[in-house]
Specification:
six-stranded mixed β-sheet, globular, 6 strands, Nucleotidyltransferase, domain 5
Length: 162
């Protein structure tokens, strides 16, 4: 299976998880400028898939934050594609449907679905410092990035790029 670099972009910080098959290789939240530099210099881009949470419009007014996030998504995608990489854009709605079976699911439901997928239960999936589980260290926006990666690994989303 292809290695997946999954992103949950924000206005100034981005959650990132690297998956090798179902195994979480790394997870963190980085400043956007750092993430952009990392994507521009990543090794073996052609062997990896960049999965990015994409924005959807539901007819409601949005604020500046949405447009700033869209700009960062475009920069991340361009950096990856310009090096010959593939990108899969994944809507949040599709993440919820894939992991929870319903679009009305909330972030805690998505997190619990991920724990169940890697579990059973929090003690196995996350573990403790002395006995870390496969999701040990995943925090903050990296949970959303993990959800995007797992969903992209199932073939959900729109592929763009090389």
């Amino acid at each position: 299976m292809t290695r997946i670099v999954a992103l949950d972009p924000g206005t100034d910080r981005t959650g990132c998880v690297v998956l090798d098959g179902a195994r979480v290789i790394s997870s963190d939240v980085h400043p956007n400028e750092w993430m952009l530099g990392h994507l521009r210099s990543a090794v073996d881009v052609g062997e990896q898939l960049l999965a990015v949470e994409w924005l959807a419009s539901y007819g409601m007014p949005v604020g500046k934050e949405v447009f700033v996030t869209a700009l960062w998504i475009g920069r991340f995608v361009e950096a990856w594609v310009s090096r010959g990489g593939r990108v899969r854009l994944v809507y949040r709605r599709d993440v919820k449907l894939h992991l929870c079976g319903q679009a009305r699911a909330k972030d805690p439901n998505v997190r619990q679905a991920l724990i169940d997928l890697y579990g059973p239960g929090k003690d196995v999936a996350i573990g403790r410092k002395a006995t870390p589980g496969p999701l040990y260290g995943v925090s903050s926006h990296a949970w959303s990035a993990l959800a995007v990666g797992v969903t992209a690994a199932a073939g959900v989303g729109q592929e763009v790029g090389a």
